[in-house]
Design brief:
The chain has 8 helices and 16 strands. It is α+β, with helices and mostly antiparallel strands and about 350 residues long. This is Polyketide cyclase.
């Protein structure tokens, strides 16, 4: 009995301490987060005022694979809305609305969360800075009941972590999208160039096949479809969430009777892969000799020989050849690709 009384006294004491400490915690939180992204405003803004785009890179949605999303017209700008719901957790759901828009300058969003319709307001300010965009997030959290104010102590850290992660994903997503557009506008075919290329993370498969007429290209098409279907269907990636497919192989194995290669699609980060046929491979950043080529797949050999001759003339060591398909490999005589040969001293 004495222990029971002692326990009650301890609980009451701790409760009193907690209650007193809550008097020093604000009933709601307002905080500002500033981020800069290396893409112009006309590329960045549509990723915010279109909630379908917004949900593709915001980690609040992408980190929970159990969420179902529904979008309502208009799909962008003032008046657009979306709902989310966790299929396995009935307590996790909410609605997001765009309440105000000043195009490429300001957005005002409202988030209603859970059964209480807990209201968060998110004001976004966009500041163009040449080819960059500064984004200022003004977040206003809801008023909490007295005994729930401790949640305000962690809310800011949660929002900062979420926004940091989301902006990194957005950067990679825009990189895939903008790089594709830029490449199409400025391609110079059959000219040997030197580039400093960034690293890439590829998800793909290892393959060995015969190197006889038509057989190699047909094998590439088959494995392209296999990898693409896995990325789009199993991983649920949208078109702007992955990069151009890349084939990696020995630069001079076009002369061999059999060809071994890795065929992969660039992703922004590693994810759990349930099929053991697929694996991740990293392409390191560095100096590359590059030729853009279009024509029959067999005709690429001449361009590859140009790269090898240049490397030999410059007394450079070489790595594996990377064949980036700028258009999906479907027809043997209409390939469009970037041939990249890593070189080292």
């Amino acid at each position: 009995m004495r222990w029971l009384k002692f326990g009650i006294i301890i609980v009451l004491f701790l409760g009193g301490v907690y209650a007193v400490s809550m008097t020093f915690v604000d009933e709601n939180k307002n905080f500002t987060i500033e981020k800069e992204i290396n893409y112009p405003i006309d590329k960045v803004y549509p990723q915010f005022n279109n909630l379908q785009n917004f949900a593709r890179w915001n980690s609040f949605f992408t980190d929970n694979k159990n969420l179902t999303l529904q979008f309502y017209t208009p799909y962008e700008g003032k008046g657009s809305a979306m709902t989310y719901r966790d299929k396995k957790d009935d307590s996790t759901f909410g609605d997001i609305f765009i309440r105000y828009e000043n195009p490429e300058k300001t957005l005002k969003l409202q988030l209603f969360e859970g059964k209480r319709n807990t209201l968060y307001t998110i004001d976004l300010k966009f500041i163009p800075q040449n080819d960059k965009t500064k984004i200022v997030w003004y977040v206003h959290t809801p008023k909490r009941p007295f005994l729930e104010r401790s949640l305000n102590l962690i809310s800011e850290d949660f929002w900062i972590s979420n926004i940091d992660k989301s902006m990194k994903t957005l950067y990679h997503l825009l990189g895939n999208k903008v790089d594709k557009e830029t490449q199409r506008e400025s391609l110079k075919f059959d000219s040997l160039m030197v580039e400093q290329q960034d690293s890439q993370l590829l998800l793909g498969i290892n393959v060995t096949t015969k190197n006889v007429k038509d057989a190699l290209f047909k094998n590439i098409v088959m494995n392209h479809n296999k990898v693409l279907n896995y990325v789009k269907m199993d991983l649920a990636k949208k078109d702007d969430e992955y990069g151009e497919p890349v084939m990696i192989n020995d630069a001079d194995n076009f002369k061999d009777k059999e060809v071994s290669y890795f065929y992969g699609i660039p992703l922004s980060k590693k994810e759990a892969v349930s099929d053991n046929n697929f694996s991740f491979r990293t392409i390191e950043s560095g100096k590359y000799y590059v030729i853009f080529y279009q024509g029959s797949y067999e005709g690429r050999v001449k361009a590859i020989q140009q790269l090898l001759t240049k490397a030999k003339h410059d007394t450079m060591r070489i790595g594996d050849l990377q064949q980036t398909f700028l258009e999906e490999p479907t027809t043997d005589n209409k390939t469009v690709m970037k041939l990249s040969l890593p070189v080292y001293k």
